[in-house]
Amino acid sequence: MKKLIFGIALLFVGAAGVIALLACTLLAEPVVYNGTSGWLGCLQSMGLTPALAAFLVVALLGLAFALCGVFEKKK
């Protein structure tokens, strides 16, 4: 049960970070960075691509912990 709650919390934090970064890029001015436009070009121009990757990793780890908690055998 603890793994499930921890996993859901991590998933929520990671997903909230990803959503916040993507929402902020939608509000920013359009940027073309090395031929890449759109939200990815905006993230690259601000140097936030590693932050997006970190939030995605946290969300995936949270999903893994939650799934381990769901399918854990009880004694």
Secondary structure blueprint with pairings:
Layout: H1 2-27, H2 38-46, H3 49-70
Helix pairs in contact: 1-2, 1-3
Overview of this structure, please?
With about 80 residues, the protein is mainly alpha-helical. It has one domain. Helix content is about 75%, strand content about 0%. The protein has helices at about 1-25, 40-45, 50-70. Helix 1 (about 1-25) packs antiparallel against helix 3. The longest helix is centred in the N-terminal third of the chain and has 26 residues, at about 1-25. It is elongated, with a radius of gyration of 16 Å. The two termini are about 10 Å apart.
Instruction: Give the H and E element order.
Output: HHH
Number of helices: 3
Which secondary-structure class do the elements indicate?
mainly alpha
The biggest sheet amounts to: none
Question: How many structural domains are formed by the residues?
Answer: 1
Q: Tell how many strands the DSSP assignment holds.
A: 0
Specify the overall morphology: elongated
Name the beta content range. Answer: under 5%
Rg from Cα: 16 Å
Summarize this, please?
The protein is mostly helical. It contains three helices and no strands. The longest helix is centred in the N-terminal third of the chain and has 26 residues, at 2-27.
What characteristics describe this protein?
75 residues; mainly alpha; 76% helix; elongated; 3 helices
